[in-house]
């Protein structure tokens, strides 16, 4: 397998943001009971590759058993984004093992970000963290990750055999498989049970 193109997940692979995003969901839903919000946190952690739009709707429809309008989803998502822009621009949250590999190898591969994070917020964070120049494109939600990968593959006429996706969640794995590209798990040992390639450290990745 000769890799030429790498699709990168963002949260948990490039940025250690889980604790901050946990706090963000607790903050935007603080009027609800702690038990209800903790049920959302469990879902959020198990589905790192899904967008906040999906998680907000899940909270209402599956945990609260209530209907929620698209306008309400967008309102919560915007509140969440404001908090994330405030908290996630600190370089201390960068995962240096991955970031150093990206900086050292961005001219040798085609790098693209495909993330469950809100696209506008994602691009803002990449600018603030001085990451944008290392990627040919940066894509996020509300478009589902499987569609983001497909769109980039098609628009660049990439050979699927030379592409992979690096991610830390089962949703990343599914997006790779649905698009018939290789998957490398990272920063989540539970992904090793998938019998797929797994990166323990980028110092050993080639």
UniProtKB/TrEMBL annotation:
Enzyme class of the recorded protein, top EC level: hydrolase
One Gene Ontology term, aspect cellular component: cytosol
GO biological process terms held by the UniProt record: DNA repair
EC number, as in UniProt: 3.1.3.18
Matching CDD domains: HAD_like (cd01427)
Pathway listed: Organic acid metabolism; glycolate biosynthesis; glycolate from 2-phosphoglycolate: step 1/1
UniProt xrefs under InterPro entries: HAD-like_hydrolase_sf, HAD-like_sf, HAD_2, HAD_sf, PGP-like_dom2
Catalysis performed (reactions): 2-phosphoglycolate + H2O = glycolate + phosphate
Gene Ontology molecular function, alphabetical: phosphoglycolate phosphatase activity
Entry superkingdom: Bacteria
One Pfam family of this chain: HAD_2
Record-stated family: Belongs to the HAD-like hydrolase superfamily. CbbY/CbbZ/Gph/YieH family.
The protein's name: phosphoglycolate phosphatase
Organism annotation: Leeuwenhoekiella nanhaiensis
């Amino acid at each position: 397998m000769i890799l030429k193109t790498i699709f990168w997940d963002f949260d948990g692979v490039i940025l250690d943001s889980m604790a901050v995003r946990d706090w963000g969901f607790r903050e935007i839903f603080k009027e609800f009971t702690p038990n209800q919000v903790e049920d959302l946190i469990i879902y959020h952690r198990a589905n790192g590759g899904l967008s906040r739009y999906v998680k907000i709707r899940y909270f209402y429809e599956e945990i609260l058993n209530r209907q929620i309008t698209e306008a309400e989803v967008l309102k919560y998502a915007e509140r969440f984004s404001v908090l994330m822009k405030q908290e996630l621009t600190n370089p201390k949250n960068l995962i240096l093992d991955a970031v150093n590999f990206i900086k050292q190898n961005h001219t040798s591969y085609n790098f693209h970000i495909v993330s469950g994070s809100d696209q506008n917020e994602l691009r803002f964070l990449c600018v603030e963290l001085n990451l944008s120049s290392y990627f040919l494109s940066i894509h996020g939600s509300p478009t589902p990750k499987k569609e983001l990968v497909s769109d980039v593959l098609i628009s660049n006429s990439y050979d699927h055999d030379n592409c992979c996706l690096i991610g830390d969640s089962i949703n990343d794995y599914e997006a790779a498989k649905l698009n018939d590209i290789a998957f490398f798990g990272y920063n989540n040992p539970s992904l090793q049970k998938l019998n797929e390639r797994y990166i323990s450290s980028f110092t050993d990745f080639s």
